[in-house]
Amino acid sequence: MKALHNKINNNLLKARMATVDEKRVTLSFYRYYHLEDPSGFRDALYKSLDQYQVFGRVYVATEGINAQISVPESQFEGFREALYAVPWLKGVRLNIAVEDDGRSFYKLTVKVRSKIVADGLDDKSFDVTQRGQPLDARSFNALTEQPDTVIVDMRNHYESEVGYFKGAIRPDVATFREALPLVEAMLRDQKEKNVVMYCTGGIRCEKASAYMLHKGFKHVFMVEGGIIKYAHECQEEQLENKFIGKNFVFDERLGERISTEIVAHCHQCGVACDTHKNCANDACHILFIQCPDCTSKYRDCCSPECADFLLLPEAERLALRGKYQFNGSKFGKGGRLKSIPPPSAAK
Questions:
Q1: What's the pLDDT band for 345 if we cut at 50, 70, 90?
Q2: Among 87-96, 151-160, 312-321, which is the least confidently predicted range?
Q3: pLDDT-based confidence at 57, cuts 50/70/90?
Q4: Residue 249 and residue 228: Cα distance in Å, rounded?
Q5: Rounded to an integer, what distance in angstroms lies between the CA atom of residue 174 and that of residue 335?
Q6: For 160-173, what is each residue's pLDDT tens digit?
Q7: pLDDT value at 313 more than 50
Q8: Position with higher pLDDT, 204 vs 130
C-alpha cells in the first residue's frame, strides 16, 4: 500500500523541483461544509491528489476544507474533474494565482485539523453560512466610493505590510484569531455603516463577515474570492485596480505582484522593498523583508549574527542550536517588529 504522506527529505524535494521544467498551475480553494469523517476523507483525498501529481498544503476539518496547491498543466483537467466528482466540492471556486513561477510547492501535505482556519471562535454560537454579501470587483469599487463604507483587511500585519486596498483599516495583529475581536471593538460605533471585509482568497473574510453579522453589524460585505479573484476581474474587465502593492501568499513564492507600487521597506536598511524571505539560518528562520543589497551583505540572513552562525560547521551549529536567541526565536513569523534589531545572543 502506498504511503499517504511524503517520506523524502525536504531539501531533496526542493532541489528536484528546481530541475523540473514542467509547467504547473498554482491555485487555492476552500469550502465550509459539515464533514462527518475528516480522517477518512483526508486519506481518500490524498490518494486522489497524489494521482495527479498535486503538491501543496491541504487542511481538512469537520467544518470543511482549505487548500493551497499546484498542479501540472497537463494534469489540470483530470484534477478538476476528480475534485468536482466529490458532491460537496462540485463547482468549488478555484482561485488561480495572479503571478506564478510554478514552484510554489514541492510536496503534498494533507492534514486533519480542528478547524480549516484557526479563529478562536465558538462556532456553535453563530451560523457561519450566514455570511456577508459577496462583492465582485466592479461592485467593490462602486461601494468603496461611498462615504459610509469602511474597508477592513482581515489579514495579518506582515501580509498587509506589502499590499492593501486603498483606505483600508489594517489591524496590527499576528493572527486571524486576534483580528476578530479587535475589528469588532474598532467598529463598535459604526454598526450602521457598510463594512467591507477582505483577505487573500476569501476564507477568512467569509468567517469574519458571519461573525460581524452575529455581533449586530447591519451591512456586512466580503470580497468574493479575495484579493486573487479581485485582481483577475480587474484585469479581465479593465477596471480600476484599488489594491496597491503585493499580495502575500503562504507558499514558496511569499508574494504575487498586483500593482507596481512598492509600499513596504527593507527591515534592515529602510529602502523601498517588498520582498519577503525567511532567514537562511534555520535556527532563526524569521520572516522578514530584505532588499538585494542587504541580501548580499547579510548572505540571506536577518542579522550579522545569523550570517556568522551560518558559516559554522553543521555539527557545531547543531550543538549550539537552542543556546542562542535569534530574531526568529524571539519574535517568530507573527512578530510585531517593523524593523529587525540585532538578536541578543546568550552568553
A1: very low
A2: 312-321
A3: very high
A4: 10
A5: 7
A6: 999 999 999 999 99
A7: yes
A8: 204
Shared-domain flag, residues 98 and 25: yes
Domain tally, the chain? 2
Domain boundary among 58, 77, 112: 112
Question: Looking at the structure, do residues 99 and 175 belong to the same domain, yes or no?
Answer: no
CA torsion sign, 87 to 91 to 93 to 97? Answer: positive
- Catalytic residue, candidates 199, 266, 291, 306: 199
Cell output for 243: 489594491
Known active-site residue 291? no
pLDDT (mean) for 22-30:
94
CATH, residue 97: 3.30.70.100
Q: Choose the final residue of a domain: 157, 192, 225.
A: 225
Cα–Cα distance measured from residue 156 to residue 177, given in angstroms and rounded to the nearest whole number: 10
pLDDT on residue 347: 33
- Rounded Cα distance, 241 and 112, in Å: 37
Residue-number span of the structural domain to which 83 is assigned = 10-112
Backbone angles phi, psi at 51, to 5 degrees: -60, -30
Q: How many Cα atoms sit within 13 Å of 253 on the Cβ side?
A: 23
**Does residue 158 share a domain with residue 96?**
no
In a domain, 51, yes or no: yes
pLDDT digits (tens, 9 = 90+) for 90-99: 999 999 999 8
My answer on whether 132 and 83 are in the same domain is: no
Q: What is the CATH number of the domain that holds 181?
A: 3.40.250.10
Domain-embedded: residue 271: no
Q: Exposure of 22 by Cβ count < 10 A (0-12 exposed, 13-18 middle, 19+ buried)? A: exposed
Bridge partners, 92 (sequence order):
none
What pLDDT, on the 0 to 100 scale, is given for residue 1? 43
Q: What gap in Å lies between CA 230 and CA 251, rounded to an integer?
A: 20
Q: Are residues 98 and 132 in the same domain?
A: no
Kindly calculate the radius of gyration of the chain based on its CA atoms and give it in whole angstroms: 21
